[in-house]
Write a structure and sequence with these properties.
Elements (H helix, E strand, L loop, with lengths): L2 H6 L3 H12 L3 H10 L7 E7 L5 H16 L3 E6 L11 H7 L8 E5 L6 H17 L4 E7 L3 H9 L2 E6 L6 H4 L2 H6 L2 E4 L7 H15 L3 E6 L2 E6 H4 L8 E3 L8 H18 L1 H29 L2 H12 L5 H11 L23
Parallel strand pairs: 1-4, 1-5, 2-3, 2-4, 5-6, 6-9
Antiparallel strand pairs: 7-8
Helix pairs in contact: 2-3, 2-6, 4-12, 6-7
Bound molecules: guanosine-5'-diphosphate (GDP) and magnesium ion (MG).
């Protein structure tokens, strides 16, 4: 039986092996990804992001358990967080909680090594997610630590992005950046058992109101009328605010209900395909950039490249001129290789 067939049939050993190949960006991995790709596009990708310590890993655990118990869905967890219990940096309590999920054949947990460039991590995460999707995991939860660009990258990858906040993380305004709210489809205040929940909720709702006004005032026959945003446009999604206690499994009925509503919204508004297209488009673009750069560097001797940087550093020429010289100076144009293939792309030979 081919390894592809094993993956499609849900063989865990074959899956583990392939995930490693994909993470190492091996040629076997790339070939398998190309073969598996037609089987993808079925899973619901849920991103979970937020500051360290807000309880993301605990929440992801509980959410996975919830989908197992109440929906009997196959769940994969991809943790892109150096402090995640899944990545081995676990305190004992986290390991104990992990026991809830281990031994369940319907759950697969994979942690990502976080070395390498941010772009590289996003690319690998996208590939890993494709493997799980093809292997029949219906819910794929991606946990990333809230650290700027990685949040945005995950939001781009996921259909539904959950932003996790928690009370008592110092200055509320600091914790609740407007930028993070822009990517949130569902807002969670975890640790709702802790003091200060009301403050966090108030701060969150007022920031949210700025980003997504829920009421608009109209002048109608000289009278001011307040109309709620969904009445104006039913396609507008206003992120709900859900309170959870991840350590006790509280609030997960409401959380899963909000997630389900978001899926319905994505389907009905057409945003599901819009997001799918944007995600695959940016993945393709990243691969294209990488392939073009590889090909370009192949045609330019390293010494020449270094020499050009030197000239720019000495202010002899501008970066623009350096690029122009490098592009014109190569033997063959990097855009038109003699063998007509795009090297470095999975299945590149088909692109001639
Ligand atoms: N009191 C309380 N503690 C929680 C809750 N959720 C998580 N924790 C604890 O907060 C700490 C950080 O949780 P973790 O899931 O690792 O957070 P992460 O860094 O965001 O992934 C752990 O000690 C958890 O047991 C909660 O709802 N209430
Ligand atoms: Mg974590």
């Amino acid at each position: 039986m081919s390894s592809i067939t094993s993956i499609l049939e849900g063989n865990r050993l074959a899956l583990t092996r392939l995930l490693t190949q994909v993470e190492n960006d091996s040629s076997e991995g790339r070939a398998a990804l190309a073969e598996l790709f037609p089987h993808t596009g079925k899973a619901h990708l849920i991103g979970v992001t937020g500051a360290p310590g807000t309880g993301k890993s605990s929440l992801v655990n509980q959410l996975a358990l919830y989908y197992r118990k109440n929906h009997d869905k196959k769940v994969a967890i991809v943790a892109v967080d150096p402090s995640s219990p899944f990545t081995g940096g676990a305190v004992l309590g986290d390991r104990v909680r992990m026991r809830d999920l281990s031994g369940d054949e319907g759950v697969f947990i994979r942690s990502m090594a976080t070395r390498g460039s941010l772009g590289g991590i996003a690319q690998k995460t996208a590939s890993i997610v494709q493997v799980f999707d093809a292997a029949g995991y219906e819910i794929i939860i991606i946990e990333t630590v809230g650290a700027g660009q990685s949040e945005v990258d995950v939001a781009r990858l996921a259909h539904t992005t959950i932003v996790v906040e928690a009370p008592g993380l110092g200055d509320e305004i600091q914790a609740i950046k407007a930028g993070i709210l822009e990517i949130a489809d569902v807002l969670v205040i975890n640790k709702a058992d802790r003091p200060g929940v009301e403050n966090t909720e108030r701060a969150l709702r007022s920031t949210l109101e700025l980003a997504h006004p829920t009421k608009r005032v109209f002048r109608h026959h000289g009278k001011a009328m307040s109309v709620s945003a969904p009445e104006i446009d039913p396609n507008i999604w206003i992120p709900p605010v859900i309170k959870t206690v991840a350590t006790e499994g509280k609030g997960f009925d409401q959380l899963s209900e909000s997630i389900a509503k978001h899926v319905t919204h994505l389907r009905e508004s057409g945003d599901w395909s819009v997001r799918d297209r944007a995600r695959l488009g940016s993945e393709m673009e990243a691969l294209l950039r990488e392939a073009l750069m590889d090909r370009f560097l192949e045609n330019i001797p390293q010494a020449k490249y270094e020499e050009m940087i030197e000239k720019v550093v000495n202010r002899d020429i501008s970066p623009y001129d350096a690029v122009k010289l490098l592009l014109n100076g190569s033997q063959s144009s990097p855009l038109a290789p003699p063998d007509g293939t795009l090297r470095g792309l999975p299945g590149g030979e088909e692109l001639g």
